[in-house]
Design brief:
Blueprint: H1 2-20, H2 23-57, E1 65-68, E2 82-83, H3 85-88, E3 98-113, E4 119-127, H4 129-132, E5 153-157, H5 158-164, E6 171-176, E7 179-189, E8 198-202, H6 203-210, E9 215-216, E10 218-224, H7 227-240, E11 245-248, H8 250-302, H9 307-345, H10 355-370, H11 382-387
Parallel strand pairs: 4-8, 5-7
Antiparallel strand pairs: 1-10, 1-11, 2-9, 3-4, 3-6, 3-10, 5-8, 6-7
């Protein structure tokens, strides 16, 4: 009994020596695992967040569906326009899919600065100013969705504003024949698109300017969903408005799916590469540790330790290192993904909680696989170690 207690005591001292003698190398492994977990968690979170944003929030390709006048309306007395009652009574979520319609009236008019009388011919757009920012969240034009616009407010594209030498707070005059409307510039638009050369004002004022009260040019429909839901919405709207042209912008809907597929593939490949590199890092450190631990393993075997028990001890150590590195790294990675999302997509990525346990689990698996070199310790023979042959 005394001999067994002595052996157990010695075994315990050897275990502590194994775990504590290589603190510097263990720290290197922990840092490698933490870094790998941070980057992989950031990429996985971006991948998960990208799909939701591409299908429910991002509208970088514009509307999904257009409602325009029917083929026979161009010869009608009202011209190729729609009754704006279509937009006022627009349906919502008829079959669970969330979609909204935004009316637009386009006309060409002369736009002048009230102060300097500098003017040019430009496209004037009439729409709901508060909802205009919803058209393209990627524009990042400020508080458009929450601002309390008045009938006297308007938005002006950056190129048009530069041409007229006006700024926010300046007054504009718009002329279409004898009809004149004035407005005060609430915000300068910088979108990188045709809006930079346009003036946007309330729908009612644009209708008065065009002499087209109660008429609109088209309705842009924004569907929050995948291409299948876009097609379902278009089919529903065709049945609801059989005399109008309902056209899904398939190239944009399919582009959303293709963009996500490319982003997903790229991020998956990058995540796999990072985990492989992390595993190789851990494996290199474990190889050195295996060489340093041969003598201690020989001592443990000499006092009755089994090869399976010793390997289980090392695998447990690797799993604990992976767990610690994963917990710390994944938390840092979630924060990193927020900054990366803002840099890549122009909007911060929202943390997806499902990513955290997945990242930690992957890190533990990488750590265990990286401990592969320690299997050689199972073949260590105490006699060989004591003779000094190894």
């Amino acid at each position: 009994m005394a001999s067994e207690r002595t052996n157990l005591s010695m075994f315990g001292r050897l275990v502590r020596r194994l775990l504590l003698a290589n603190r510097g190398r263990l720290l290197v492994i922990l840092l490698a695992l933490s870094a790998g977990a941070a980057v992989s968690a950031a990429l996985l979170n971006l991948q998960t967040d990208a799909k939701r944003r591409l299908t429910t929030e991002f509208r970088s390709f514009g509307p999904n569906v257009l409602i325009t006048p029917g083929p026979g309306q161009s010869e009608a007395r009202d011209g190729a326009t729609l009754d704006d009652s279509i937009a006022r009574a627009f349906p919502s979520k008829p079959f669970g899919t969330n979609f909204t319609g935004l009316p637009f009236l386009f006309l060409a008019a002369r736009v002048e600065s009230v102060d300097s009388s500098r003017g040019t011919q430009a496209i004037v757009v009439g729409t709901d100013l508060r909802s205009f920012g919803f058209r393209e969240p990627g524009w990042n034009i400020g508080d458009t969705m929450t601002a309390h616009y008045t009938e006297n407010d308007c938005l002006v594209g950056v190129h048009l504003a530069r041409s007229l030498q006006v700024a926010a707070g300046s007054s504009l005059r718009m002329k279409d024949g004898v009809r004149i409307e004035t407005c005060q510039i609430r915000r300068i638009l910088s979108t990188g698109g045709p809006e930079d050369n346009q003036a946007v004002l309330s729908l009612k004022r644009a209708q008065r300017l065009a002499g087209a009260e109660g008429r609109i040019s088209l309705v842009e429909v924004f569907v929050s969903g995948d291409p299948t839901e876009v097609k379902q919405t278009a089919t529903y709207l065709r049945k609801r408005y059989p005399d109008l042209e309902v056209r899904p912008l398939r190239e944009f809907s399919e582009a959303q799916a293709k963009v996500y597929a490319h982003i997903s593939g790229l991020l998956t490949a990058a995540t796999a590469l990072i985990l492989i590199l992390t595993g190789l890092c851990v494996m290199a450190a474990m190889t050195n540790m295996a060489a340093e631990r041969k003598h201690d393993v020989g001592m443990m075997k000499a006092i009755g330790g089994s090869a399976r028990g010793i390997l289980s001890l090392f695998l447990t150590e690797a799993a604990l290192l992976g767990l610690a590195g994963g917990l710390m790294g994944a938390a840092a990675g979630m924060a990193l993904s927020i900054a990366l999302g803002k840099a890549v997509f122009g909007i911060a990525a929202a943390p997806r909680l499902i990513v955290y346990p997945i990242s930690v689990t992957l890190t533990v698996m990488v750590s265990i696989l990286g401990a592969y070199p320690l299997r050689r310790l199972a073949s260590v023979r105490p006699a060989t170690i004591f003779r000094g042959d190894a």
